[in-house]
Amino acid sequence: MSDPTAQQRPTRQRSAILEALANCRDFVSAQDLYARMTEDGTRIGLTTVYRALRDLEAAGAVDVVQAGAGERLYRWRPDDSHRHYLICRACGSSRPVDSEVVEEWAERIASHSGFAAVEHTVELTGVCASCQPTTDEGELPLCHWDLASETPRHRAHGCAS
Fold it and tell me: Is there a contact between 44 and 38 (Cβ–Cβ < 8 Å)?
């Protein structure tokens, strides 16, 4: 992948954001990333984090999904390929899925409709094996994105320290 900051002025903050995001295994919100960075001693503003994530999205360097409440979540894209993910609604873990059939379908729809520059969004959510209740536990766990009482650090579990 080309350098996602090539068109932006390189700064210490942008480098720190890139490093922090690259250390996250799963999707993370701007606020969660900000909380993690400041907790680790990085001096940075929340606006700077939002701006950098917007720029990284425009550069195609991150994948973005919408959380249940409309919050945007980001994950570093390790290469130039467009990916789709299956995301656990309980813990937030994610894994890329084979999406060739989706890409072919989108191209076929574009071709048949006469549209150009067709874009698509596919979001798959479920409950991972680790979060599925045992038969005596009963209900599925709540979506981690809807747990307002949790701190960002708890939700940013997918980032390495």
Answer: yes
pLDDT (tens digit, 9 = 90+) per residue, 28-69? 999 999 999 999 999 999 999 999 999 998 888 888 888 777
What is the amino acid identity at position 7? Answer: Q
Q: How confident is the model at residue 96 (pLDDT cuts 50, 70, 90)?
A: confident
Q: Are the beta carbons of 1 and 77 closer than 8 angstroms?
A: yes
What is the token pair recorded at 51? 């701006």
Give the whole-angstrom CA distance, residue 15 versus residue 106: 35
- What is the pLDDT at residue 110? 94
How far is it, in rounded angstroms, from Cα 69 to Cα 79?
A: 28
Beta strands in the chain (DSSP E): 28-29, 62-66, 72-76, 84-88, 94-97, 124-126
Sheet holding 72-76, edge to edge: 28-29, 72-76, 62-66
Tokens coding 123: 């979001």
